[in-house]
């Protein structure tokens, strides 16, 4: 297994212990890498669901437990007995009653296995996949790389999470490649679905309550079940480190609760190591796309139900393109942490209710979680529609319409840029126009060609008013005209967001260069080349800190990435740094695309801060009250003819991103949130002045080369209002 510790980058731009020459030798070309993807539902490639299943187990034992014996193992363990005795003594409850309670909790949690149901599900997935998708593409080489290291220690599969299809695909692919289907952590909302809960359990799901912070007994029993699942069971464990589906198609801040539990057997010395497999899942079109857009605007999430599941099957009449699944280089926890066995053995035998990670261990787990998210994003395949959306948005901001020929050329240019950065792109240059036409057809609900030019697919405000009860919206009751503008713009932004892993820091660097160029124009004397680079690096670090919860790209590779991104901007003739230290920035297509990617996020943070500045310092407010204020403010700006002067974008209405920005301001000390009431107020801490932050964000917004951010949105608003 590859050692993937969090290591500092050296000044040469490579990771310590690895030369750039070694990197080149083991890194295949972009085209070679994409050829490793195999469509496993193509005619002739399908898996037989009736064949004998003799899988490679994740962790080899002399004797294997079945699901029922696993539960008995937990119930009879000394650790669980000490837990129950602890709670019986603390609460004055008879031990027998505590044991019955524990058995009921274990039965609620525990997974099961029924091969007949697994085979039936496989047949259904194959049939539905062939009908709605252009293929399930799996990187066979990376799967083989994972498989060769199996058997020596427990395995944790940690996929990115953009759709409910993620865990279905993982189980299907494990069956296809003869790997034991892992136990999958699932929420209790699935457990309560009639019929579906039982089916999921019998295909390997184990269930956890969304919140059990007030039920310490449940917490400890769940932790002991997870401990046994990792240390004493052979199938591997799968869960989503982001905790929930990302409705905006960006990586979320990792949640370390389940990861910490899963690593306890390692910290106690009961297992020699844990192998972590980051899994990257990408979709040309996500099944829940429309649902996510509505939820971002405040439409309540529908409750999971069996009736809702069958209602959702109407999607079989739609096209969703290709689905890509890639496996990252396995991470050895032992090598990542650099632990010795004596350190870990000190925990052995301690009761589960006393097991807590110390501060140093928590920090190590956080670093590991960030590395997992980083590796997930590196291998997410960028589709033609991702690049098309990015290019089209940049042209919208610049008030230009786009033809098929221009799109094809723009997408190929972006493919070259992304591959230079290290991304894997599915676009085929030899059939670029066909790829673009196909991508637009798949997403005809968002975009279409009219009179030879690409434009948004009209969405009537009347139709939205009929579909959505504005009284039930989570924040402000947005008017149908605003919704009609926001829905297609947010849908387009969803497909731009996966690109932000690659473009966020180049965008920071480009803004830094624009800012330094402006500063230098006011100076009469030259500065040194090194001083200019230091100034650029300082600006990038400042923006990294501001957007650290927005773009999860922390990895201690900043120095190497700074050099990579600077080289990209030099190669694309966007930035020139003279030997005298003078910085020159060119306004070209590459700079437009990079800045267009960041523009909606800058606008959102700016409008949030503008809204906060209108709130009296002494006033306390809830999260919902703040969301309502921001959405009201943004809606008013979008309806004004001169909205562009206010740096506004429909993305400023997205609740998930507003919540991320609010959390970022809390973490950075601009807002103070009460732990007890949840109420917030503006901080009066010295050095945390919202006015200064507003000025900083406004300066960044004004550096954008776009004459009007929201011209296209405003034109659409007028179009929809006229249709009413």
TrEMBL record:
It catalyses: dihydroxyacetone phosphate + an acyl-CoA = a 1-acylglycerone 3-phosphate + CoA; dihydroxyacetone phosphate + hexadecanoyl-CoA = 1-hexadecanoylglycerone 3-phosphate + CoA. Its EC number is 2.3.1.42. Keywords: Acetylation, Acyltransferase, Membrane, Peroxisome, Phosphoprotein, Transferase. GO terms for cellular component: peroxisomal membrane; peroxisome. It is found in: Peroxisome membrane. Residues 1-29 are annotated as: Disordered. It is a peripheral membrane protein. One of its GO terms (molecular function) is glycerone-phosphate O-acyltransferase activity. Residues 155-284 form the Phospholipid/glycerol acyltransferase domain. Residues 8-17 have a biased composition (Low complexity). One of its GO terms (biological process) is ether lipid biosynthetic process. Pathway: Membrane lipid metabolism; glycerophospholipid metabolism; Lipid metabolism. Part of a heterotrimeric complex composed of GNPAT, AGPS and a modified form of GNPAT. Dihydroxyacetonephosphate acyltransferase catalyzing the first step in the biosynthesis of plasmalogens, a subset of phospholipids that differ from other glycerolipids by having an alkyl chain attached through a vinyl ether linkage at the sn-1 position of the glycerol backbone, and which unique physical properties have an impact on various aspects of cell signaling and membrane biology. Belongs to the GPAT/DAPAT family. This is Dihydroxyacetone phosphate acyltransferase. The gene is Gnpat.
């Amino acid at each position: 297994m590859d050692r993937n510790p969090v290591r500092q980058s050296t000044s040469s731009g490579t990771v310590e212990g690895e030369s750039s020459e070694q990197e080149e030798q083991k890194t295949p070309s972009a085209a070679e890498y994409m050829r490793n993807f195999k469509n496993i539902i193509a005619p002739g490639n399908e898996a037989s669901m009736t064949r004998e299943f003799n899988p490679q187990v994740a962790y080899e034992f002399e004797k294997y437990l079945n699901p029922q014996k696993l539960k008995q193992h937990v119930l009879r363990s000394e650790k669980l007995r000490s837990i129950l005795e602890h709670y019986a003594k603390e609460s004055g409850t008879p031990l027998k009653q505590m044991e019955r309670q524990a058995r009921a909790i274990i039965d609620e949690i525990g997974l099961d296995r029924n091969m007949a149901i697994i085979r039936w599900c496989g047949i259904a997935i194959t049939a539905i996949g062939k009908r709605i998708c252009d293929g399930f593409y799996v990187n066979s080489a990376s799967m083989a790389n994972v498989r060769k290291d199996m058997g020596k220690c427990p395995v944790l599969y940690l996929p990115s999470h953009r759709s409910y299809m993620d865990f279905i695909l993982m189980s299907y692919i494990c069956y296809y490649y003869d790997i034991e289907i892992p136990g999958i952590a699932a929420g209790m909302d699935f457990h309560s679905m009639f019929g579906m809960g039982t089916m999921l359990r019998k295909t390997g799901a184990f269930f956890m309550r969304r919140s059990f912070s007030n039920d310490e007994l449940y917490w400890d029993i769940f932790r002991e079940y997870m401990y046994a699942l990792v240390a004493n069971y052979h199938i591997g464990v799968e869960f989503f480190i982001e905790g929930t589906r990302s409705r905006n198609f960006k990586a979320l801040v990792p949640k370390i609760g389940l990861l910490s539990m899963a690593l306890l057997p390692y910290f106690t010395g009961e297992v020699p190591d844990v192998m972590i497999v980051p899994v990257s899942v990408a979709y040309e079109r996500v099944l829940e796309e429309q649902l996510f857009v509505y939820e971002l605007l405040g439409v309540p999430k529908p409750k999971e139900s069996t009736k809702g599941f069958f209602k959702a099957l109407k999607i079989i009449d739609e096209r969703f393109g290709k689905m890509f699944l890639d496996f990252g280089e396995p991470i050895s926890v032992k090598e990542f942490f650099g632990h010795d066995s004596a350190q870990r053995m000190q925990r052995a035998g301690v009761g589960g209710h006393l097991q807590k990670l110390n501060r140093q261990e928590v920090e190590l787990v956080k670093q590991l979680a960030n590395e997992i998210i980083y590796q997930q994003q590196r291998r997410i395949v960028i589709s033609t529609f991702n690049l098309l959306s990015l290019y089209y948005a940049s042209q919208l901001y610049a008030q230009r319409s786009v033809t098929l020929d221009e799109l094809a050329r723009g997408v190929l240019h972006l493919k070259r840029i992304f591959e230079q950065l290290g991304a894997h792109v599915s676009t085929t240059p030899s059939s670029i126009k066909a790829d673009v036409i196909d991508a637009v057809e798949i997403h005809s609900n968002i975009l279409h060609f009219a009179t030879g030019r690409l434009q948004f697919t009209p969405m009537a405000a009347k139709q939205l008013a009929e579909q959505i009860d504005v009284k039930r919206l989570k924040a402000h009751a947005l008017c149908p005209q605003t919704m009609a503008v926001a829905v297609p713009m947010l849908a387009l932004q969803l497909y731009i967001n996966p690109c932000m892993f690659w473009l966020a820091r180049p965008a920071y660097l480009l803004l830094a260069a624009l800012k330094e160029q402006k500063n230098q124009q006011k100076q009469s004397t030259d500065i040194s080349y090194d001083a200019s680079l230091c100034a650029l690096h300082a600006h990038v670090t400042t923006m990294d800190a501001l957007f650290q919860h927005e773009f999860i790209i922390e990895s201690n590779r900043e120095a190497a990435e700074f050099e990579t991104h600077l080289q990209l901007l030099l190669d694309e003739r966007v930035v020139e740094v003279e030997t005298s230290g003078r910085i020159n920035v060119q306004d070209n297509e590459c700079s437009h695309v990079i800045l267009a990617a960041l523009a909606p996020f800058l606008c959102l943070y700016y409008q949030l801060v503008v809204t906060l500045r209108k709130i009296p310092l002494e006033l306390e407010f809830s999260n919902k009250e703040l969301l309502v204020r921001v959405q009201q403010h943004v809606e008013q700006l979008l309806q004004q003819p001169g909205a562009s002067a206010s740096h506004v974008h429909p993305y400023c209405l997205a609740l998930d991103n507003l919540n991320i920005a609010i959390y970022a301001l809390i973490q950075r000390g601009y807002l103070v949130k009460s732990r007890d009431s949840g109420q917030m107020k503006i901080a009066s801490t010295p050095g945390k002045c919202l006015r200064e932050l507003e000025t900083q964000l406004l300066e960044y917004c004004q550096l954008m080369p776009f004459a009007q951010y929201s011209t296209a949105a405003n034109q659409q608003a007028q179009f929809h209002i006229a249709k009413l």
